[in-house]
Amino acid sequence: MDIGIPKESRQHEHRVALTPAGVKALTERGHRVYVETGAGSEAGHGDADFESAGATVVYSRAEAFQRAELLLAVMAPEPAEYGLLQPQQAVVAFWALPAAHAENLRTLISRQVTVVGLEVVGDAEGHAPALIAMSEIAGPLAVVVGSGLLLNEFGGKGILLPGAPGVPPANLVILGTGVLGQAAARAAVGMGAEVLLLDVSIAQLRQARDRLPRTVPTMVATAHNIERALSFADLLIAAPATRGERAPVCITRAMLRKMKPRSVVMDLAIDMGGSLETSRPTYFPDPTYEAEGITHFCVPNLPSIVARSATTALTNTVLPWVLELAEKGADRTLAENEPLRRGAYLHHGKVLRQPLAELFGLPYQPLDAGR
After folding, report:
1. DSSP H or E stretch at residue 114
2. Quick one: how far is CA 92 from the chain centroid?
3. 8-state DSSP, 299
4. For residues 54 and 66, what is the distance between their CA atoms, to the nearest angstrom?
5. Are residues 122 and 90 in the same domain?
6. FRET partner for 121 with CA separation of 20 to 30 A, picked from 9, 148, 260, 338?
7. CB neighbours of residue 42 within 10 Å
8. Is 370 a residue whose pLDDT tops 50?
9. How does DSSP assign 159-223, residue by residue?
10. What is the rounded (10 degree) CA torsion for 146, 149, 152, 157?
11. Tell me: the pLDDT tens digits for 2-48?
12. Closest by alpha carbon to 50, among 6, 115, 85, 10?
């Protein structure tokens, strides 16, 4: 099969879809891999590394797209690039289509491509391995970046996250105890912060508390409890677990006013639309803005700032799926592989995910196993 790996085009996206080792696993099986020049340079993988792995380096973005039966990316192509997509082509990436504009989705449907969203490939219990891999990286990163945003030089309150002898630590509130929230909590507890966990699920709160190295207080995420937590939070990390659906708006502008000035909120559900009424996507080197006197950080691709580590983690997760797609083709793979079928948003112009169809008022046409 012909496989294309374009250079990422989203703002400050430094990852690449596969490492050279992942590419070698494909070429050793006789598949042809076309890598756009410079695709891996910011993740520490030069063109020569990919050529050594058996790939062909191409010098045109259009060529990376148009040679491919299977296109691999980290972030989905920009809407302006949909015209490069070929009918019957399969495109695997983090798509987050529930947060897309309706006209862009309809254009994508008209291209007759198969769209597999890495954020929703997974089992019936809601475990999405690619999303888990990135969340395990984003959680600790959020604590590191958030602790920096509390410093005076970055507009913060001038608070040291772990405190010091005779000096209390910062109050960190984590809304959502999925993989990202739990990873952030572990990192923050290890640093010595005061941590409070909120979630709508008692089971999730129980699991998170049991997995942490010390007891951490928990609260059910009702509007009343969120407001209470906001009133004393120095740093809020909002990461309500969503899989293939738009993020719920948990914090309104009125609720945000409960926070003390120069506090920090990090909306890590921004890739799925955001969980604060005041959120909008931000990007490095200017990742923050102020609303209601509160610093907002809403970077949708946070793991990208550790691109080498994140690319390796992503390759470890997706390579078995990519190998199967390359060996069998998209039609047969989706028919036989239930986790990948769950991750397919679109297939030959049909909407395969019911929540997406309902959100945009489109026909829902499931792909049955074995068909």
Report:
1. strand 114-117
2. 14
3. -
4. 19
5. yes
6. 9
7. 18
8. no
9. --TT-BTTBPPPEEEEE--SHHHHHHHHHHHHHT-EEEEEES-HHHHHHHHHHSSS---EEE--H
10. -60
11. 999 999 998 889 999 999 999 999 999 999 999 999 999 999 999 99
12. 6
Predicted pLDDT of residue 371: 46
Domain that holds residue 29: 2-126+306-360
Name the packing angle between helices 20-27 and 307-328 (round to 10°).
10
Q: Which residue has the tokens 């910062």?
A: 170
Please check whether residues 280 and 324 belong to one and the same domain.
no
- State the average pLDDT for the chain: 94
Q: What is the pLDDT of residues 218-274, one digit of tens each?
A: 999 999 999 999 999 999 999 997 666 788 999 999 999 999 999 999 999 998 889
Same domain, 340 and 231: no
Rounded Cα distance between 125 and 237, Å, is: 24
Q: Which two tokens stand for residue 350?
A: 């049909």
Q: What is the DSSP string of 55-89?
A: PEEES-HHHHHHT-SEEEEEEPPPGGGGGG--TT-
Number of folded domains that form the chain? 2
Q: What CATH number has the domain bearing residue 168?
A: 3.40.50.720
**143 and 284 in one domain?**
yes
Residue 117 pairs in a beta bridge with: 93
pLDDT value of residue 369:
44
- Phi/psi for 101 (5° steps) reads -75, 145
Residues in the chain: 371
Q: Among the three residues 258, 276, 297, which one is the final residue of a domain in this structure?
A: 297
Domain boundary among 297, 318, 342: 297
